[in-house]
C-alpha cells in the first residue's frame, strides 16, 4: 500500500493528529480536554494520555505500551529508555513536538557525522506501526512526561466499541 493511501486510511480511522504549530519544547501541556472513541486530546488537538489517581490508563496508552514492545523496543530498549543502538525516546520527546515525533516515525531520519551514522528507518508503510501510531505516541508521551512508570499498566479503560473495526479497516 502506498503511503498516501495508508495516511488516508489513518485519517478515516482517527489515527492522525490535527495539525498544530511545531515547537521545540515538546508537545506542551498533556492535560486531556477532549476525547473521541477512547482517544484523548490536549488543547492543541494532539493525542494525550489519561491516567487516573488509581493508575488506570486509557485504552490508547495501554495499547501503545503493547505495540511499543512489539515494534520499537528492539532498538529503543525497554521502557523507551534507549540502548547502545538507539536513543532514549523518554528524553527525545521532551524537546520534540508531536508532529516532529510522528514525522520521524513515518518518514525516518538519518543523522550522519564523522563519528557516527544514526538511522531511524521509515515506518510509513509498516501497518503494524502506522495502524497504532497514536497509541504508540500516547504511551511514549506518558513515559516522557513521567506520568507512567516503567512497568506494564496494571489496569486500563475498556476497549472502544469500534476499536476492532478501525484497526481492521487500517490493515485492509
TrEMBL record:
Bilayer-spanning residue ranges: none
One matching Pfam family: Cytochrome_CBB3
Record has Iron as a keyword: yes
Gene3D superfamilies for the chain: Cytochrome c-like domain
Ranges for domain Cytochrome c: 64-125
Annotated keywords: Heme, Iron, Metal-binding, Signal
Molecular function via GO: electron transfer activity; heme binding; metal ion binding
Signal peptide: 1-21
Protein name per UniProt: C-type cytochrome, methanol metabolism-related
